[in-house]
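User: Second chain of the day. Same drill as before.
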Amino acid sequence: MARTGWTVSHSKAFWARRALFLASSTMLGGAVIGTVSATAAPVVSIATKSFLISPQPLANALTTFGMQSGWQISVPDTLTAKLSSPGVSGSFAPDVALSHLLAGTGLTYQVSGSHSVIIKKASANITLGPVRVGGTVAHQDPTGPGVGYFAENTMAGTKTDTPIIEIPNSIYVVTKQQMVDQQAQKLTEALRYSPGIYAEPQGTELTGAASGSGIRQRGFITSQYVDGIMSNSYTAGETAFLDRIEVVNGPASVMYGQVNPGGMIGTSLKKPTATPLHDVSVGFGNWGRYEATFDISDKITKTGNLRYRVAAIGVTQGAQTEYVHYKRLGVLPSLTWDIDPKTSLTLVGGYIYTPFSGTTATEYPLIGTLIPGPEGRVSRRTFYGDPKFNHNSAQDAMFEYQFRHEFNKYITFNQSFRYERSQDHDQYMPFWGRVSPTEFVRVPWDSNGINRTIGLDTKLTGHIATGPVSQIWVVGSDFRQIKSYSNYSMGDNDVINIYHPVYDLDMTCIKNPWSCNVEKYPSWTNYFQEGVYFQDQIKWKGLSILLGGRQDWFNSHTVGATRDYNTDGSTTTIIDSHSHMAQSAFTWRAGLVYKLSFGLAPYFSYATSFIPQTTRNWRGNPFSPLTGKQYEAGLKYQVPGSSILLTAAAFHINENHFLITDPDHPNYSADAGRVASKGVELSANANITKDLRLTASYTYDSVRYAKSNLTQAVIDAATGETGDKVSERGKYVQSVPRNMMSAFFDYTVPQSFVKGFGINWGIRYTGFTYADAANSFKVPAYVLFDVGAHYDFGQVFPALKGLRSQIAISNLTNRYYITSCGRNDCYLGQGRRVYGNLSYSW
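Assistant: Same format as last time:
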C-alpha cells in the first residue's frame, strides 16, 4: 500500500492552549477561560489526495478507495451486501472521501491503526452530527446540526458545500447543541450570543410571532431565509424544528437577491437523517409553561434509500405580563428518497396552529420604565391593553421540496421550491402619546392578515480541475412571489393610567365595526422578484478567490387606504392609494482568502446589495431602492486538528436611501439619506475538549446618518416637550448598540468526579442605544447572566441509557432592563426565566 502523507502534528493540548490564549486575550479582556489537560492524545493531520470513484456497489467502491488512498479497509461482506455508494470525485483528505463514499448507507468507520479502518454500522445515538474518529472529524453536513459548538462547512453565502474558513466574509453558525444547552425557545433567543446581531430590540415577548421580527444585523433590519429561500416563517421561528441557524453578516444579494447590507439569517429545517433518531421530551417552566416534543427519524426501506422524519411540538404558557397567553401545536414531517446514487428528492411539510400567540404586550410607557414616574417604575406584569380586547392567533402551513441530480462528476443540478401560507388576527392597543406623567393615550387596533409566499431556486454547479487550479462554479435563477392581504380597523382613543389601569373599553363598535363609524383600512399587495446569478470559486494551493454577480428584476402592485397623522395627532386624512412599481439592479462581489499551513486565513472582500421599495412617501412619490456596499477584511484561524474556530472582522458599510419614520407624518417613511455602519467583530466557536465547549463574541458597531437632509426635533424624555430641530447628519441610528459582548461555556464534569453531570453559564452585555434620530436621550446598557445544568442518567444507571435532564435559567438576577425606546414608549426585556426539560433518546 502507498503512503498517505500523514504527519503527526503538535498535541491537541498545545493547539488548544494557544487558541484559548488568543481568544481570552483578544475577546474577553484577558479573562482566564480554563486549562486543558496536557495528557490529551496527539492529533493526526491528513494531507489531501485526488479521488475518482464513480457511483457503484459499495464493496467495489471501498476496494477502489483502498487503492487510491493507501488505507487498509476491513469490512464484513454482510454489511456491504446490496448497498451502493454515491462515489466521490476531487481532492479530499482520505477521511472526508471515505465519508462521501459511505453517505446514505447507514455505515460509519473507526480508525484501527495509522492507515487502517474498520467499517461498521452507525450508532443509533449519533444525533448531533458526525463523531470524532482518530483525532479528526469526518466531513460535516453543511446544513446539518454541527458537532458541539463547531460547524466546519456551510452552504450559506455561497450555495456550495464550502469550509467556513475558505469564505471571505463573516459567517457564524448556531449549532443544534448550542440551542439545546441554552434551551432557546425561539429564533431570537437562539441568536443572543451571535456577533453582529441585536436579536431583541423589540423586547422579548414576541413569543409566537413570525421568526424574523425586529432583528438587527450590523445595524440594519435583517432578512430570513429558510432552506435557502426567503420566508418570514412561523415554522422556522420554532427551534424545535431547526437543525442549525446561520448568521451571514454583510451583503448577500449576489446569491439571494433582495437582502439588506447588514446580512441575512439562514435556518435549516429538520430532515431525515442517515442514522436512526428517536427523541421525546417534556418540559416545564415559570409563567405556567408546559411543553412536549418528539423527533423521530428512521429508514423505510431496508437499504435506507427511503427515509422519513417527523418532529412535533405542543406548548402552553403564560407570560411575565398579565392576560397574555401562548399556545401552539406544530408538526414538521419530511421524506428523503435516494432515487439512485446520483439522484435524490426531499419533501418537507409543516403546519403550526397558534390560537394564542402572545404578541400583544410589547409596548410599555416611557414614563414609568426608562424614567421613573411619580410612583416609580411600572411592573413587568402590568398589561396596557384590555382583557376584553386581547385576541391574537396565527396559522401557518408550508411545503417544500429539494431535488438533486448529478449528471456526471463535473455538473450537478439542484432545485428548491417552497410554498408557505400564513394567516393572523391580532387585537392590540399601541400608545399614541402622553396626557400627563401618569396617563397615556391608546388606540384600539384590530388587524387581520393573509400572506402567501412562493419561492423557487434552480442552479447548476460545476467542478473543474486544471492542473493545480480547481474551480467550483454556480449559475442559477430564482424567483419569489408574495401575495398579501391586510385589513385593520381603529377604535376611538382611550386613556389609561400607567400605575392603576382600569379595563373598561367600550366594545360596541370594535366588535361590530361595520355598524359604527370606525375607520377601516384594507390593502392588497402583489410582489414579484426574479434574478439570475453566477459565482466562481477558484482555488490554487492555499489561495481561494470568490467572484459573483447577479441581475434582479422586481415589480409590485399595491391597492389600499392609509391614514396620515400629524405629529400632534390632532388631525387625520384618509388617503387611497393605487401604485405599481418596477425596479432592477445589478449586484456583485469579489473576495479572496489565503489559508496558511498552520490554520490562519486572512481575507478581504467587497460586496454590494439591493433592496427594492414598495411604499411611497406622504406626498405619494415612490422611494428609490436601497443600495449598499461593504468592504470587509479579517482573519480566521482554525486550530489544526481541532474543532476550534476563531474569527476577527472589520467592516465598513454604506447604504443609500435608508428609510426611517417620517418625523412630520408618522404613518409614512422618509428617506434619511446615506447611513454608514463601521465596526469590528470577534468570535470563537470551540469544542475545546470533549467536556468543554465555548461560544464567545464581541461586536463594535458605529451606525450613523452619514448624509441626510432631514431634521428632527429634540424631545425632553421627562416632559415629552419638543425643542429645536436638529440635523440628523452625524447622529447615531436609533436602537443600535455600539458595543455588545457575550460568552457561553458548557462543561461536563469528568466522569471520575460526578458521572454524567454538567453545568453551563453565560454573560451578555448590550451597550446603550439612542431612542430617536435626533439622539434626544439614551436607553442604558445592561448585563445579563444565564446559567444551567444537565445530567445524563445513563452514565451511572445503564438501564436509563438515553435519559437526560436539563435546567436553564436566563437573566439569573432578574434584572429589569429596557431593550429599546421610542419617543413615548419602550420595550422591556424578559425577567428571570426558568425552564426544565426531561428527554429520552433511543
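The chain is about 5% helix and 55% strand.

User: Great, on to the next one.
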